[in-house]
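wait is this the right file?? whatever heres the structure
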């Protein structure tokens, strides 16, 4: 079990493992931010091992983390950023209920050049996806909200 004492779960940031059938598939992370110095938001991220990509695990993990943060904190906004060439992550964020807000120009120096980024967000009042029974397989037939449209 992770606690704020070991540095994995904290009031300002944290990391949680993504587990599939008792195997570690990667991790999700969150960190706090604020545009005005007083209104807090979360920024989330994900890293999956290559063999777990393209299986619907990423969007569900991000949706579950987002739902958890909305349920347990008072923030109104959760955001995520990705690279323009990372089409898989863009689709994953959209499936997780995030909306593209725009391009962040020259936000990162990578591979010898300044690169743009895409900023996505989900607000507390935005409709979220149906994630299901807490597993990466989605809702079970017969459960409220199942089967998933995704």
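ok assuming it is, sequence goes like this
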């Amino acid at each position: 079990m992770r606690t704020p004492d070991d540095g994995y779960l904290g009031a300002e940031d944290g990391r949680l493992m993504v587990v599939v059938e008792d195997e570690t598939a990667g991790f999700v992370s969150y960190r706090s931010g604020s545009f005005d110095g007083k209104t807090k938001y979360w920024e989330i991220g994900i890293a999956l091992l290559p063999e777990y990509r393209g299986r619907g695990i990423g969007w569900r993990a991000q949706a579950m983390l987002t739902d958890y943060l909305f349920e347990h904190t008072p923030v109104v906004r959760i955001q995520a950023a990705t690279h323009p060439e990372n089409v898989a992550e863009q689709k994953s964020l959209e499936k997780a209920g995030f909306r593209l807000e725009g391009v962040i120009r020259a936000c990162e120096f990578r591979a010898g050049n300044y690169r743009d980024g895409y900023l996505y967000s989900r607000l507390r009042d935005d409709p979220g996806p149906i994630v299901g029974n807490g597993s990466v397989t989605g809702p079970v037939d017969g459960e409220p909200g199942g089967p998933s449209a995704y």
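DSSP finds two helices and six strands in the chain. so i think its the right one actually
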